[in-house]
Amino acid sequence: MVKSKKILTLSVPLVIFLIACYFLFQGLYTDPRKLESTLIGQTVPEFTLQDLYDPDKQHDASIFKGQKLLLNVWATWCPTCYAEHQFLTKLAGQGLYIIGMDYKDNRIKAIKWLTDLKDPYAISLFDKDGMLGLDLGVYGAPETFFIDSKGIIQYRHVGDLNDRNWQDKLSAIFDNME
Amino acid sequence: MLPEIGQVVLAIACMFSLLQVVYPLYGIYAHQQSAIESAKILTVLQFVFVALSFIILAYLFLVNDFTVAYIATNSNSAMPWYYRLSAVWGAHEGSLLLWVLLLSIWSTAVALMSKRLPVESVARVLAVLGLLSLGFYLFVLLTSNPFDRTLPYFPVDGRDLNPLLQDIGLIFHPPMLYMGYVGFSVAFAFAIAALMEGRLDSAWAKWSRPWTIAAWTFLTLGIALGSWWAYYELGWGGWWFWDPVENASFMPWLAGTALIHSLAVSEKRGVFKSWTVLLAITAFSLSLLGTFLVRSGVLVSVHAFASDPTRGLFILTYLILVIGGSLLLYAVQASKVKSRGRYSLISRETMLLINNILLIAALIVVLLGTLLPLVHKEMGLGSISIGEPFFNRIFTVLVVPFALFLGVGSLVRWQRQNLSDLFKPMVILLVVSTLLTLVFLLAFASHFTWLALLGVFLGMWILVGTGMEIYLRSTHRFSLWTGMKKLGNSHWAMTLGHAGFAVMVIGITMTQNFSIERDVKLRIGDSVRFEHYDFHFDAVNDLQGKNYGGIVGQFTVKYDQETVAVMEPEKRIYTVQRTAMTEAAIDSGFTRDLYIAMGEVLPDGAWSVRVYYKSFIRWIWFGPLMMALAGVLVMFDRRYRVKKVSKSAAEVI
Q: Which of B142, B145, B140, B39 is nearest to B99 (CA)?
């Protein structure tokens, strides 16, 4: 009796480990594109970030107010962003207002990227240390936030925007925002 | 042809590791002496073949064989040879090969240096190590083969190694860290072998102690080196960022630190035995978890992982088999352990127990902080990030009791301490350390903060406490000088290690409280001034390196009108990957570092420049260096040497 109780106590580490494994296993198969942000339904947190092109120019959260828009998180180190870029340029061509946030990146490289590939962004924020990214719960790039004219985040899309998912679902979300 | 040979050689090593598991265990089961004794030779053979395979890969890097996919993606012909060599372990496949190579080096060391131990016990330990190797070989061969070819369409030249990694720090940092990670496998193997045998006496604690300390020493050095590298290479002037990669190395360190202390108790007093076994399993499990979390990218970027879950699945299966299996064994077998020793509430044993509890608390904090974002997301609670402020706050709290107990801990006797005997030394300790703290702050602090007072006091408390311990111990029976000469190496190692921790605490406190960081806009000819220092921006010149170009700034630094340094921060552009890198200029000193990093050139021709004054930052690495030195000192302790000598003497007879 005493012994089986002791075995039970000694099994605690095993049980904890198995629970941890369950989460790791889930983590393997969870589609990261379905990430939820705790910020949905809230305004973008306060921040001041430099403009990508001009370190002397500062932007704050007021740029998200006044019209509905997309906030696209990208970086030159992110291969998917490269694939996504053409589609963003197309969206910008259709008149969508897109703000870009260059995430944990190198300024010179990023400017060169935008010069070479065309710049779809109305405003380019430079989030060198990922501070705004941290507040937004950004996991990696690319990610896109759908923000309405009051500056409230309505939807978060993780992964690239492309013709297919835009037609399927995302354009409807964007059109329904005020 | 050579890459294929490398792969075949690796497969042979894999086979030997399989034999290393099966044959000795069969020998123990069937009582066949020759099979039991084969464990050693099989281990050595496994090492020979994996080393050969590693040398082949390194050679292929040196001769720029871009038909090998791994080389084409991580090296190019413009890199100097030593970076091509260190690129071998610059990415996933190669670093796994390094892992398994180091594992075989540790195994071979155990095989060759355990002549005093019973043959059967060594065979069990080697079989466990073989099993660990086998899993890694299969992982490398089946999912991450570094010898894969890009034929028939191979590139003319390779991509660059990530410029961040082209640095002298990278040549030493990962192997050092891995030596530590992998080294805990020996303590783990000893623990598992003891559990298998069902014989958890203090003998196994004695055997695995030097191995554990060796691994811990490497890990300490590895982490310190990594921190130092981040400081001077990344261009942020920080020394610890609490990112998942760092946490992954910090967790085994915490468990390992707890382990070396609890091993000491188990060996000397025969208590905490089952706890020590659990710690040995934990330390290695965390090393495995760390390697895998970092290498597989479960935490860092989920995106890379979802596309190819095979690697992840393999990793997870391996983790479940190794960690789950050993915890199961632990649950069943550790119940048989009976503690013999007794101790009262106020005793060295209790002090070490508190040390362990606090270290494990710290470990849990780091583990939760690292894994919680993942768990949180899986439970559908949304994504969260846990950052520096969280860790900093909790560690500030945890270090207070830890340091206070550390200071008095070594003054307390084993088994039982009379509280009234402790009163006088405690008062002296309190008075002297307070005085020293005040003197220190008056001399070096530019202003007063409570946190600085607390931090420096804790450091002084430990320093004075360990100093008093040496004094009291030496003068216990002899005069001070004779007594000090009679203290063993491990005693001095303990003192040095604890003093190292104190130095680090003081370093962190001073750096966090009295550093000055300025991001300024400077034109050539401008100056920036603070803390008696004057930084004058003299010029910007062109720079041409082997595989990079760029610019180099020139600053003259004056301290009260007197020139102390000319500093030249660089900004490099690596031609192949077109990435820019900041090479900060650092003028290091005993009580402060000056640090300049060039930012971007602004449209009006001025430069954005980061200028830092880092108070006592060297101490942060000097402390761990002392701790590592302490580890080395233990290796040369009489207990481990004398027996070796007497053994070889016995052989001569």
A: B140
Side-by-side strand order, sheet with B607-615: B516-522, B607-615, B592-601, B585-587
**Would you say residue B264 has pLDDT above 80?**
yes
Of the residues A17, A18, A53, A128, the best mutation for testing chain B's interface (the one with the most B CB atoms within 10 Å of its CB) is: A17
* H-state helical runs in chain A: 2-10, 12-29, 79-93, 107-117, 131-136, 163-165, 171-176
Structure tokens at B157: 């030249």
Q: Any alpha helices (H) in B379-418, and if so which ranges?
A: 388-409
pLDDT (tens digit, 9 = 90+) per residue, B33-46?
888 889 999 999 99
Residue B157 has φ and ψ, to the nearest 5°, of -140, 160
Q: Options 3.30.1240.10, 3.40.190.10, 3.40.30.10, 2.160.20.10; which CATH number does A33-176 get?
A: 3.40.30.10
How much of chain A is in helix, strand and coil states, percent to nearest 5? 45, 20, 35
DSSP bridge partners of B592? B615
> In sequence order, which ranges of B576-636 are alpha helices (DSSP H)?
618-635
- Euclidean distance between CA atoms B81 and B75, whole angstroms: 10
Q: Do A13 and B327 touch (CB under 8 A)?
A: yes
Is the confidence metric ipTM above 0.85 for this complex?
no
Chain B residues within 8 A of A52 when measuring between CB atoms: none
Please, are residues A32 and B302 in contact by the beta-carbon 8 Å criterion? yes
What's the angle, vertex CA B343, arms to CA B340 and CA B346, rounded to 5?
165
Interface of A with B (CB under 8 A): 3, 6-7, 10-11, 13-14, 17-18, 20-21, 23-32, 35-38, 54-56, 80, 106-109, 112, 129, 134, 137, 139-140, 159
**Angle, in degrees to the nearest 10, between helices B273-296 and A12-29:** 10
Judge contact between B528 and B535, C-beta under 8 A.
yes
Q: Taking CA B610 as the corner, what is the angle to CA B608 and CA B611, rounded to the nearest 5 degrees?
A: 130
Secondary structure of residue B26 in the 3-state scheme: helix
Contact B377 A30 (CB under 8 A): yes
| Contact indicator for B129, B185 with CB cutoff of 8 Å | yes
Give yes or no for a contact between A11 and B331, defined as CB atoms under 8 angstroms apart.
Answer: yes
- Judged by phi (left if over 0) then psi (alpha if -120 to 50, else beta), residue B380 lies in left
A10, A22, A132, A155: best mutation site toward chain B, by most B Cβ within 10 Å?
A10
Residue indicated by tokens 């990214």: A133
Q: If phi over 0 gives left and psi between -120 and 50 gives alpha, with beta otherwise, what is residue B620?
A: alpha
Model pLDDT, residue B302: 35
Q: How far apart are CA B301 and CA A79, in angstroms?
A: 13
Q: What is the 3-state secondary structure (H, E, C) of B273-339?
A: HHHHHHHHHHHHHHHHHHHHHHHHCCCCCHHHHHCCHHHHHHHHHHHHHHHHHHHHHHHHHHHHCCC
Residues of A in contact with B602 (CB under 8 A): 54-56
* Chain segment B519-571, per-residue pLDDT in tens: 888 888 888 888 788 899 998 888 887 778 788 889 999 988 888 889 998 88
The two three-digit tokens of residue B387, written as one number: 């950052």
Question: Residues B221-233: pLDDT tens digits?
Answer: 999 988 888 787 6
Q: How far apart, in whole angstroms, are the C-alpha atoms of residue B36 and residue B40?
A: 9
The residues spanned by each domain of chain A are 1-30, 33-176
